Predict the 3D structure of the following.
Amino acid sequence: MTTISENLQGVRTRIACAARSAKRDPSDVRLLAVSKTHPAARIAEAHAAGQEAFGENYVQDALAKMDALPPLEWHLIGPLQSNKTRVAAERFDWVQTVASERVAARLSAQRPRHRPPLNVLIQVNVSRESTKSGVAPEEVPSLGAAIVRLPRLRLRGLMAIPEPGAQSAEQFAQMRELYERLRAEFGLDTLSMGMSDDLEAAIAQGSTMVRIGTAIFGKRQREESAA
Ligand SMILES: *Cc1c(COP(=O)(O)O)cnc(C)c1O
């Protein structure tokens, strides 16, 4: 059985190879370890192997793990309901799934004064699937303009979950185009796309943050409650 530390090393190698093939600097691609459904002990193992940033999908599940671990960098990558914004604003370092002005305004109002502004990404529904969260690409400029006016948020960039399969390369390319178009205007530095199965394609199209679960922690046994 491979250990989390070996898996992490394998993922770092894949990222470095993909970056080099794309003539990019491997250090320009951050690794977010997606720990949803995995217990705190496995996260501690990844941390011991040098991993600092972790992504969780459900606020409630994440809180229990945060309480059990030393301070780490936490990213919320699951859909955020407006009744969960307070906890998200208090406990997370990043929220990658902002998709409405209403949620953004609440996060800004609820971000504690003693913490730095909350880093946020706009989730883009690049595949335009009705079941996926996120805003349509054409709505991103106006949502971005609203977010940069909020004092307690720092807009860092865009996040997307393209449809797996043939379409994904084209959707990664669309995301890159949108990101490049808005980067200077909004001061963006983060394009979050790419998962265990498609990180190479995402890095080829300019991803600066890949979100990797399975390739680090193994298969998920169950999905956690949507809390
Ligand atoms: C679960 C999840 C991931 C990680 O997916 P893997 O295929 O396990 O690497 C990445 N991003 C989001 C938004 C997820 O929900």
